[in-house]
Amino acid sequence: MEAPFSGALTGKKLLLCVGGGIAVYKALELVRRLRDAGAIVQVAMTEGAQQFVTPLSFQALSGLPVRTSLWDSAAEQSMGHIELARWADRIVIAPATADLIARLAGGHADDLVSTLCLASAAPLTVCPAMNHHMWLHPATQANIATLSGRGAQVIGPEDGPLAEGESGPGRLAQVPAIIAGLAQAETGGRTEAPAAAVVDSRLQGLRVLISAGPTYEDLDPVRYIGNRSSGKMGFALAAAAAARGAQVVLVAGPVQLATPDGVERVNVRSAAQMRQAVLSALPADIYIGAAAVSDYTPRVVSDQKLKKTAQTTGMTLELVRTPDILAEVAEQTGALKLVVGFAAETHDVEKYARGKLTAKRLDLVIANRVGMAGSGFESDDNAATAYWADGEREFASTSKQQLAGQLLELIGQRLDA
């Protein structure tokens, strides 16, 4: 089977700038895989990178001489760094250390790599790799936000074990993920700015409780009442919150989604089970009610399959209201700093969203219109409008991963409101 974006990198001239960190060894594999994808790869190394891997290793894999210094007299006879900057179709920084990211954000040109980036009009891809405390530091987050704001593509970092024995967001993205991101960029596909690429770290250390997915209300051992919620939005929020350093508990309805790294997951089926799991997970600093909880449940659940007969022409079900989990959490006192609800509506979105905001005494409501292509339930994309007592903010249609990051930025800002 042909891979997605197959051929997208064929003939592309990629300038791979290698920063000085332990993840340099992964850049060797990246060179090999880029060439397998048909790209032409020219490598430039910082001084720090050369402390981990020799230029000869990259030369052997790329098939081209490796540039290591701005002061290479032979290469600079014809202003080689300018030629190289003009040659590149795209510049890829992998690994991008905290120091290198800071210097690129500041517009420095004090070594070969920073000068190449400043002298080139080629699009930039940054693949961060560093200790998780360095990644989550407000200075690094501000620098990566600056680069993103200038149009740089950011791939990673991933969450997991780090070289120094700690764990957290900071691992260089896996080579296949980098290849896929570059291919998407070349085909005009939307690239995912990772959940970890945030503007600030105001959620770091906070306990964030999120409910996601549908609930199923059983009629009998075979049938149930449910809804079309996929849980994707709630899971994206959980992943993004964990990447920001939050302690995340995710109460998930019956969905087949992988648990995000660093997230504690509690699986439930019914609205009653979700209520019990949410209340048991309190206290929390923030509650995000992204689940589509069924409004009604059968008054009586049959312990045997309800059979149809030749005489059966219809069935009457008696339904009762399910507990209002969101309102109940909003009534809690103690550690809660912010209660965020979701409103999935088919019409009069603002009217119903603001009604929910007021009636349930919420701090924030995220509303979206369902039943439209490319938005809402079952879709990988979403658009939303956030409402609070004296304001609102609209979010254009994008992937749910991207939207999750944007929403958490707003939630961080509302913590200070």
From TrEMBL:
Domain DNA/pantothenate metabolism flavoprotein C-terminal: 203-412
Phosphopantothenoylcysteine decarboxylase: annotated segments: 1-207
Binding site for CTP: 295, 305, 323-326, 342, 356, 360
Keywords: Decarboxylase, Flavoprotein, FMN, Ligase, Lyase, Magnesium, Metal-binding, Multifunctional enzyme
EC number(s) on file: 4.1.1.36, 6.3.2.5
Residues annotated as domain Flavoprotein: 12-181
Catalyzed reactions: (R)-4'-phosphopantothenate + L-cysteine + CTP = N-[(R)-4-phosphopantothenoyl]-L-cysteine + CMP + diphosphate + H(+); N-[(R)-4-phosphopantothenoyl]-L-cysteine + H(+) = (R)-4'-phosphopantetheine + CO2
Cofactor(s) annotated in UniProt: FMN; Mg(2+)
One of the protein's GO biological processes: coenzyme A biosynthetic process
One of the record's GO molecular function terms: metal ion binding
Listed GO CC annotations: phosphopantothenoylcysteine decarboxylase complex
Family: In the C-terminal section; belongs to the PPC synthetase family.
Protein name per UniProt: Coenzyme A biosynthesis bifunctional protein CoaBC
Record organism: Stenotrophomonas ginsengisoli
Name of the encoding gene: coaBC
